Amino acid sequence: MHRRWIEWTPARTLFGIDLRTLALFRVLLGFYVLFDLILRARDLTAHYTDQGIMPRAVQIDQLNSGSWSLHLAGGAAFFQSLLFVLAALAAIGLTLGWRTRLMTALSWGLLLSIQNRNTFILSGEDNLALLLMFWAMFLPLGARYSLDAALSRTRDYPDNAYFSVATVALLVQGMSMYFFSALLKTHPIWVPDGNAVYYALQLDYLVTPFSLWFRQFQDAMTGLTYYVYVLELIGPFLIFSPIFHRTFRGVIMVAFMSMHLAFFFFLEIGLFPYISIVMNLTFMPSWMWDAIAGRLYRRPLPAITLWYDQGCAFCEKTCHILRIFLLLPTAGIRPAQEDPEIGAELTARNSWVVTVGADRFFKAGGLIALLSASRVFRPLAVVLNLAPFLWLGDRCYDLIGRNRSGLSNLTAWLLPWRQRTVRIGLPTQVLAVFFLGFITVQNISTLPAGPQSLPDVFINTRQALGLYQNWTMFAPYPEMNSPWPVIPGKLKDGTQVDVYNSRVRPAVFQKPEVVSKVYANYRWRKFLSNLEDNSYRDGPQTLALNYARFLCRDWSERHSDLPALSTFKIYFQVEETPVPGGNKAPKPRLVWSHDCFG
């Protein structure tokens, strides 16, 4: 065998992460938080205020003693809105790489806080996102393609290769999700029967219209069952293989991402496919980036120089930021006064000067020239070069030019030069070692052969930091019941109404064509499925009671012109999954009766 195939890849390559990969991770993580906030904001009152389905007093009783949440400090929609805006601003700062470590810590804290505000609408997506954000605090996410990097006076991390305990922890964390999920899939439905995907796609309340069509192919579902199980069990080892490393890492990374793309088409599970793909992209190795750069810069960039007005700190910083974000690494940045001819032209035109080869560009034309030179943003230059945008761009440039002094003062506070190299120190790495062991113990404890209980101090620490691990995705086997709500009610004058759909007509028990569309979104689906699950237990039905009280208030707000809602009953049509080839027969289950005036 050729020698290069039997040489082992060193640990730094196996468990290191390219700084460009960390920059991509930062941007996609910031986007995730923004998407998540937008989706949550649709139900801000219903899910996060005292007028919703989970008043603070009720949620506090459900939390572990180590859990905390800033969102529990106030029950009004205005207070929650302020925290949402603060989280969005932190996510934007994270995305841009502005004060990156601070923004990462703020985003982590606010994400944990909002999750603890209403724990009955959470899923595996939330768990994984919080864990990724936790490990992000231990990594130099702002070392590349960030405002921090653009404004650094020092050359932080001259090499793209980065290795630390935190990179090991982040990569191991990602693969732990798959490996321990496979170990928890202990039922014969997975292996040897191969029917797990069949049962998963029979959950009408959870599947997409595409799944309703696809599940006619029994052989394909059997093959996918084995594929998912084997990939989750073996993939984590192959992705860290020291032999055939390039091949295995590329293939397994793509295999996991394709699996999550399939989840997107098959299941209504929110942003779980997105955040899982973000996690897999942390395995993107240096050679992939080098290959991309080789294609982008197959032809050398032209000689580009950005000439700014000496003494204008805002102007100089803008040039550095543009060079970083437009991916123009070889562009020069110089004071115009260094060249008498360029300096005179800058003064005469009251404009910065951008030179591309022998050509000179001014005002908005300078930005368009930079976009045209960029291999990535060239299409945007075509749009901005249209006459209306060019005119508007010149006017904006003149407005900014007239306020350079004020902008320089503002950027001195918001965007100061970084005068020293930022490093992740030894104490941070020691903490990373500790928490890597911590999550390993937590994962082992979820296995049937693991410890039956963990110390209270361990559990309180886990809850306080959001380090919960229990990867039971369709484990030990998929659910066997598919529920959807039907809530018939009566107004004070005796009119029959459909309370769930807030319509003045009798509720319909007949099965809808696409059951998953009965739910407003995946957060409501999670809450109502939790409500139905809890209704099988003895004791107080806290979820049903508070949901019923919310329905009374919600009806009054939506139908103030009608008689008040008087009574209603919360049913779930529950459809048990038959064995392959069997027939479904939904059965109504009454889980709660309510009197709005009782």
Number of helices: 26
Radius of gyration over alpha carbons? 28 Å
Fraction of residues in helix: 40-55%
Shape designation: globular
Number of domains: 3
User: How confident overall, as mean pLDDT?
Assistant: 93
| Through-space gap between termini | 81 Å
Instruction: Identify low-pLDDT runs.
Output: 1-6
Report the major sheet.
5 strands, antiparallel
Taken as a percent bin, the fraction of beta residues is 5-15%
- Structural class comes to alpha+beta
**How many DSSP-defined strands?**
11
Structural summary, described in words:
This protein is α+β, with helices and mostly antiparallel strands. The protein folds into three domains: 222 residues, no CATH class; 112 residues, 3-Layer(aba) Sandwich (Glutaredoxin), CATH 3.40.30; 115 residues, no CATH class. The chain is 54% helix and 9% strand. The chain has 26 helices and eleven strands. Strands 7, 8, 9, 10 and 11 form a five-stranded antiparallel beta sheet that branches. Helix 14 runs antiparallel to helix 15 and helix 17 crosses helix 22. It is globular, with a radius of gyration of 28 Å.
Sum up the structure in keywords:
598 residues, alpha+beta, Glutaredoxin, 5-stranded antiparallel beta sheet, 4-stranded mixed beta sheet, 26 helices, 9% strand
Q: Could you give a quick summary of the protein structure above?
A:
The chain is of the alpha+beta class and 598 residues long. The chain contains 26 helices and 11 strands. The chain folds into 3 domains: 9-189 and 272-288 and 442-465, no CATH class; 302-374 and 376-414, Glutaredoxin, CATH 3.40.30; 481-595, no CATH class.
